[in-house]
UniProtKB/TrEMBL annotation:
Keyword Ribonucleoprotein: no
This protein's name: Thioredoxin domain-containing protein
Pfam families reported in the protein's UniProt record: Thioredoxin (PF00085)
One Gene Ontology cellular component: endoplasmic reticulum
Signal peptide range in chain numbering: none
InterPro entries registered for this protein in UniProt: PDI, Thioredoxin-like_sf, Thioredoxin_domain
GO molecular function annotation: protein disulfide isomerase activity
The Thioredoxin domain, residue ranges: 54-160
Superkingdom, natural source: Eukaryota
Keyword terms: Membrane, Transmembrane, Transmembrane helix
One GO process term, biological-process aspect: protein folding
Amino acid sequence: MLDLFYHCTCRNQFVCWEKQPIHNSLQFLFKCLSIMRAMRLVMSLLLCALCVCKSVQLTDENFYKETLLSGKRGNWFIKFYTNWCTQSKKLAPIWIDLTNKNEGKVNFGEVNAMENNELTQRFGVTNYPTLIYIVGNKYVKYEGPNQLDALQEFISETYKYGEKKSIPKAPSALILFLENLGEMIQHQMNTQPLILCAILVAIGICMGVTLGMIAHVVLKEPAVDTKKEE
């Protein structure tokens, strides 16, 4: 009996020590409780997975590819938000309910305005959250309250009566290259100015030599055929 007392894993060891017959029952009961807690945790995780927002995270890089070039059918309802905005935080659970309610009918996307300045400026977004509804190559800005019924009514019907604006065109590859080049030069100026100056000097020398050779060829006097003159 003493051996049972020291090796018992029940919470109340004295009960098992005094009443050995109920030891196995208590052990079984505690195991059942542990299994029930584990099952409750699993069910909670499953419910959380079902409630995950089915909204695509859009950025400066993938916005046009996802919304206009991906071939997905249906309109797009897009939210511009910030992590520090109180109204954006209040809209978050409503947005999840809206996406789940319209799964397969409307595409949903969201843009972190602080991390995607180009996209935010292109659509003229200054207040958060800002919601736009893309239909074809046009979009309508939502002006109503951030309530589930009002949002549902907007994407179902009332967007038809809003002011339709053309979607801003994506910048050309040349413009993006020049912008990235400018950012790279600015970064190098702040971090490694001497290396950047050396690179610019080398580029200048190469361009000077190239222009000099071109000028020499173009401005060179034509050779005179002395045999014809004789």
